[in-house]
Design brief:
The protein is built from 13 helices and eleven strands. It has about 325 residues and is of the alpha/beta class. Bound molecules: NADP nicotinamide-adenine-dinucleotide phosphate. InterPro entries: AKR, AKR_Detox_Biosynth, Aldo/ket_reductase_CS, NAD(P)_OxRdtase_dom_sf, NADP_OxRdtase_dom.
């Protein structure tokens, strides 16, 4: 468990064999410049979200080539020129090949070029965490990771990550012990990897970052049972009722802390020792600033367990 004084502080977080200095809450930036993925975005909100997050004490920014096909990285690159680079942790990803309709490519030469392109867009000399965004179906995973390790030795990146790899692919990628960090779909309503992935990561000292921590908005508490149709593709009616009930339990805990459901859900991840950094996305400055407040919510052991139990049905989903 992490107690308040530690949570508020910038911490040394282990990323494989290296460490980064960050708070346990970062910023997800797929809505910063991610015009190809979401409608009704404007770049000004993107600049404002990144600035607001950094001004509120956020250190880690999670981006990717595919968020706006470079636009998210460009916006972040422009913003960070006015900040102390050494105090910011930049995580980015690549695998989609711009020369080939964004088809997934993990070939060593492609990944090396992708890092160089990202460095230019980010206007920086190094990237703190570089993930292979998705596995391709041809490159041996350890060869892909070895290519990134060469760039790590050259100082262009500081930690090697993989994302969206199956547990078997993670093991293949890590044959030579070169994987520092894994980013995968995980949240309180999608918990299967607690059993299938986390034991291996823990045993091999690989850090874990969950994406979709708010289940794309479902876990913000803004939906009621009447919204079931919006979620019918992903959850049965019974599962949806369980989620709404679990969020009602979370609301009671949130009220005790004068916090919102969103902040309390984020605090649960921050408290979880299996999670390195939480990276909720934000569409605007208000969301970004509100989410930072999760660092001020200190859950008791009992509250942590109560939320864990309320969402226990999703350990197999
Ligand atoms: N490695 C990968 O393959 C991968 C895949 C997906 C995402 N990611 C990363 O993970 C990050 C997080 O995922 P995500 O952003 O897609 O999903 P998320 O964090 O689960 O949900 C973020 C969304 O929740 C809503 N929200 C956020 N804060 C809120 C608040 N305070 N009050 C009310 N609503 C709020 C916003 O949606 P509205 O716009 O609807 O308000 C926001 O865009 C991404 O930004 C990206 O950096 C990585």
């Amino acid at each position: 468990m992490i107690f308040k004084e530690e949570k508020m502080m910038v911490q040394e977080i282990k990323i494989g064999k290296s460490t980064v200095q960050t708070t346990k809450l970062g910023l997800g930036t797929n809505k910063v410049g991610g015009h190809n993925l979401f409608q009704n975005l404007n770049d000004q909100d993107g600049y404002d979200v990144v600035r607001k997050a950094l001004d509120s004490g956020i250190k880690l920014l999670d981006t990717a080539y595919i968020y706006g096909e470079g636009r998210s990285e460009e916006i972040i690159g422009e913003v960070i020129q006015n900040y102390d680079r050494s105090k910011i942790v930049i995580a980015t990803k690549a695998a989609q090949d711009p020369q080939n309709n964004n088809q997934i490519n993990n070939e060593p030469a492609f990944l090396k070029q992708a890092v160089k392109d990202a460095l230019k867009r980010l206007q920086t000399a190094y990237i703190d965490i570089f993930y292979i965004h998705f596995p391709d179906n041809k490159t041996p995973k350890n060869e892909a990771v070895a290519a990134l390790n060469e760039l790590k030795q050259a100082g262009l990146i500081r930690a090697v990550g993989v994302s969206n790899f199956t547990p078997e692919q993670i093991k293949e990628a890590n044959i030579d012990g070169l994987v520092d960090i894994v980013e995968d779909h995980y949240n309180l309503v999608h918990r299967q990897i607690e059993k299938t992935e986390w034991p291996y990561l823990k045993q091999n000292k690989i850090a874990f970052v969950p994406y979709f921590p708010l289940a794309s908005g479902l876990l913000t508490g803004r939906y009621t049972l009447n919204d079931y149709e919006k979620f019918a593709d992903d959850y049965s009616k019974v599962e949806f009722e369980t989620i709404i009930n679990a969020l009602a339990i979370t609301q009671k805990i949130a009220d005790r802390h004068s916090a919102t459901v969103t902040q309390t859900i984020l605090a649960w991840y921050i408290t979880n020792p299996n999670i390195a950094v939480v990276i909720p996305g934000a569409r605007n400055q208000q969301q970004a600033a509100g989410n930072v407040e999760a660092l001020n919510v200190t859950l008791s052991e009992a509250e942590f367990q109560q939320i864990d139990k309320a969402f226990a049905d999703f350990k197999n989903k």
